[in-house]
Amino acid sequence: MAMENLKQFLVVLSAAAAIGFIAIIFVLRWVLHFQDGLAWDGGLAEFNWHPVLTVTGFIFLQGIAIIVYRLPWTWQCSKLMMKFIHAGLNLLAFVFAVIAMVAVFDFHNAANIPNMYSLHSWLGLTAVILYGLQLVLGVGMYLIPVTPVSWRATFMPFHVYGGLLLFASIIAVALMGITEKLIFGLKDPKYKDSPPEAIFVNVLGVLLVLFGSLILWIATRTSWKRPRDQILHSLHTNGGGGDNTKVASALSQLQDGSDAEATGDVRKRSNKADEQAN
Ligand code: HEM
C-alpha cells in the first residue's frame, strides 16, 4: 500500500532499528566486558540483568511496539492481528521490566543495600506500575469485544498520550540509572576522570536518547499512520461534518469490522453531519 514519504519513513525506521540494536550491543558489552558479567547469584552479576533487561525489553521492545502499526508491510493484516502484536510486544517488554526489578531488589537485599532511596528508583517503579496499568486498560478497552465503542474512542487520546509519556519517561529513568551506576562503580579512575568505561556508557546514554527521539518522531507523523487510521484522523480533525461524500467514502473503506471502535465513532459523526445537512 502507498505511503506518503515512504523513503523518508524507511530511512528513519532503519536509523531507529540500527541505533536500538547498537544500544543493546553496548549494554551487553558494558556488563560482559567492563563489569562482572551475568549470573543470578545475589551479587553484581545479578544486578547486571537490570540494565540489560531494561534496555532490551523496556526500551527497545516497547519502542518497536509503539511503531508496529506504522509498518507499511503490515497494512494488509487485520487491525485485530496488529493489536495482538502491539499488546504482545508490550507484554513482553513488561515481563522484561519486572524481571529487571526483581534482579535489582534481590541484589540490594542480598547486599543489605536499602531499597527505594533514589529518585531513579521512585520514578522507575512508578513507571513500571503505570506501564502495567496502561497494559491492562489497553487490553480491556481494545481487545475485549464487549467494550462499548464510545469508551474506546474516548479513551484513545489518553492511551496514546500515556504510552508516549511513559516511553519518554522510561528513557529518562534509564539515563539516571546509568549515571548513578557510573558514579557508584567507578573508583580508580573516577567518573570525573573519564575512563574508557565512562565514555563508552555515556555513548550508550546518547544512543538511548536518539532511539527515543526517532521512535517519537515516527509515532507522531499523521501521514505515516495506517491508511484507515489516517482517514479517521482527518475526519476527526476536520470535525467530521460538512463533506458527506468524503465521510461516505471513508466509511465504505472501513467495512471490515476490525476497525469497529473507530468506525463507530465516524459513523456517529456522519449521522451528526447528516442531521446538520437535513
Ligand atoms: C535501582 C527501576 C534502568 C541502574 C532501581 C530501582 C528501581 C529501578 C525501581 C530500585 C531497586 C531497589 O531499591 O531495590 C528502573 C527502571 C529502569 C531502570 C524502570 C528502566 C529504564 C536502569 C539502567 C541502569 C540502572 C539502564 C543502568 C545501570 C540502577 C542502579 C540502581 C537501580 C545503579 C541501584 C541504586 C538505586 O536504587 O537507585 N532501578 N531502572 N537502572 N537502577 Fe534502575
Automatic annotation (TrEMBL):
Chain intervals for the UniProt region annotation (Disordered): 255-278
The protein's Enzyme Commission number: 7.2.1.3
PROSITE patterns: CYTOCHROME_B561
Membrane topology field: Multi-pass membrane protein
Presence of the UniProt keyword Disulfide bond in the record: no
Domain of life per record: Eukaryota
Residue ranges constituting the Cytochrome b561 domain according to the UniProt record: 15-220
Broad class of where this protein is predominantly found: membrane
GO CC, one annotated term: apical plasma membrane
Subcellular location: Apical cell membrane
Classification via InterPro entries: CYB561/CYBRD1-like, Cyt_b561/ferric_Rdtase_TM
Residue ranges of coiled coil: none
UniProt keyword annotations, A-Z: Cell membrane, Electron transport, Heme, Iron, Membrane, Metal-binding, Oxidoreductase, Translocase, Transmembrane, Transmembrane helix, Transport
Recorded catalytic activity of this chain's protein: Cu(2+)(out) + L-ascorbate(in) = Cu(+)(out) + monodehydro-L-ascorbate radical(in) + H(+); monodehydro-L-ascorbate radical(out) + L-ascorbate(in) = monodehydro-L-ascorbate radical(in) + L-ascorbate(out); Fe(3+)(out) + L-ascorbate(in) = monodehydro-L-ascorbate radical(in) + Fe(2+)(out) + H(+)
Molecular function terms, GO-annotated: metal ion binding; transmembrane ascorbate ferrireductase activity
Compositional bias (Basic and acidic residues): 264-278
Subunit annotation: Homodimer.
Protein name: Plasma membrane ascorbate-dependent reductase CYBRD1
